[in-house]
Structure formats: structure tokens, C-alpha cells
Specification:
With about 110 residues, the protein is mostly helical. Helix content is about 65%, strand content about 0%. The protein is built from 5 helices and no strands.
Length: about 110
Amino acid sequence: MSKGKLPKLFDGSIDDLTKPSKKKEDKDNLKKEKMQKTLYISRDMNRKLIELYGEEGRRQSSIVEDAVNLYYYLRLAIGEKKLHELLEAVKREDPEFLREYLSKFKP
């Protein structure tokens, strides 16, 4: 680098740095490209994953991807506050309570 020249800096916005691109071709590539994932989960979560894997007959990675998609789109659809309330209902680990809670959302 010569003495008088500065290195080229990023000329995009902060959003470009903190959020993934929304280009269609990028989205298609994301669905095809596989990446190694390292998940640190509790033993209880591992037990639940194994149980789901046995019932569904699918790869654990597929189950995890479905869970991430469910969380992501629920957050977009119902908002942070309602999602937090729903997660608190889920943390009770009581299927009957969760059924009653979800019945409030039916039109």
C-alpha cells in the first residue's frame, strides 16, 4: 500500500453486516448447502430428540431444522411478547395446559 492511500472500507449499512442477505439466489443456496452444526443441549433435550427421532424416523438434523423454522416464523408471526408467553407455557411441560393455552388462538 502506498503512503497516501487508505484501505477500502465497507461501504454498506449496519443492517448489511448484522442481517443475512435476502437475495433469492442466496436463499436457494442456503437450502442446498449443508453446514456442520455444533449444538450444546441438555440431557433432557437429547432424550426428547431421541424420542422424536424414533417416532418420526427422520434425521435429528431435520428435526432441529424444523424446530428452528418453527421458532423463527412464530417469532415473526406473533411477535416477541406472545412468543415469550408461549415458550413459558411450553416450559411447564404439561401437554394439557398447552392445549388449553393454544385453544385461545383459534378463531
